[in-house]
Write a structure and sequence with these properties.
Radius of gyration: 18 Å
Helix content: 40-55%
Largest sheet: 4 strands, parallel
Shape: globular
Length: 243
């Protein structure tokens, strides 16, 4: 009998369309730690882009599809604190007086961000990764402010052989992305990502690491435009190194 923990994975839009290797690397880590991974190919978006833009009816339609796509009892693991926060928090009002509320509450309890699943559910800190690099860590707003994720990712990074974790100043300050904020408030967003980049560059790190691809995409776009050498890397990509 297969006694491995079974998990569903939810792959966010950014990762599906732009950084698929991050999704594959998350699966690689989960499988190495003994999980049996399921991927429902019917899954699409969590609805966050529509919700943040004010299209709540459209977001609700996506939310209903989401909870139907994940109808089992397995943990729903995602490499995005932002998407998981959407499911756990923003969906609450959608299903407040819904006939599907009980089903949603099961989904709410089972949805979990990737690093939290490793440290809080699997109780793992050392995943056997090897990565010779200096890195600094960016606390995304959704992870830190929204879900209290701070210690876990750092513990995972500290156990990566060859990796030196250097804390940057104001690691918890927003990078300026914020979804549509970076479009609607571009000058403010640019000032914020400039400060974030300067704090990261001051550490002398080779990479900026985070739980959220959306933040990293925003930071990376600015760094490339400014011809800065520091790179960005999702924590799932770091933890899959050396396998």
């Amino acid at each position: 009998m297969d006694s491995r923990m079974e998990v569903d994975i939810f792959i966010p839009c950014y990762i599906d369309l732009l950084y698929p290797e991050t999704g594959f690397n998350m699966v690689k880590v989960l499988e190495k730690l003994g999980c049996k991974v399921y991927y429902n190919t019917n899954q699409t978006c969590c609805g966050q882009p529509a919700f943040n833009a004010g299209y709540k009816k459209e977001a609700f339609k996506v939310a209903k599809k989401f909870i139907n796509d994940f109808s089992g009892n397995r943990y729903i693991v995602s490499p995005s604190a932002s998407c998981i926060k959407m499911v756990k928090d923003s969906y609450e009002d959608f299903f407040l007086n819904s006939s599907q509320r009980n089903h949603y509450k099961k989904i709410q309890n089972k949805a979990i961000e990737f690093t939290s699943f490793l440290t809080d559910i699997l109780k793992k800190k050392d995943v056997g990764a090897v990565f010779e690099a200096k890195v600094c860590y960016h606390d995304s707003c959704s992870a830190h402010n929204g879900m209290g994720i701070k210690k876990g990712p750092r513990e995972l990074l500290k156990y990566v052989k060859g990796l030196e974790l250097i804390e940057m100043n104001e690691s918890e300050t927003c990078c300026g992305f914020g979804g549509t904020f970076s479009v609607k408030m571009e000058p403010i967003s640019i000032a914020m990502v400039d400060q974030k980049s300067e704090n990261a560059l001051a550490t002398g790190a080779d990479y900026i690491v985070s739980t959220d691809t959306s933040c990293l995409m925003h930071i990376d776009g600015y760094l490339q435009k400014q011809n800065k050498k520091i790179k960005v890397m999702h924590i799932a990509d770091v933890l899959a190194q050396g396998y």
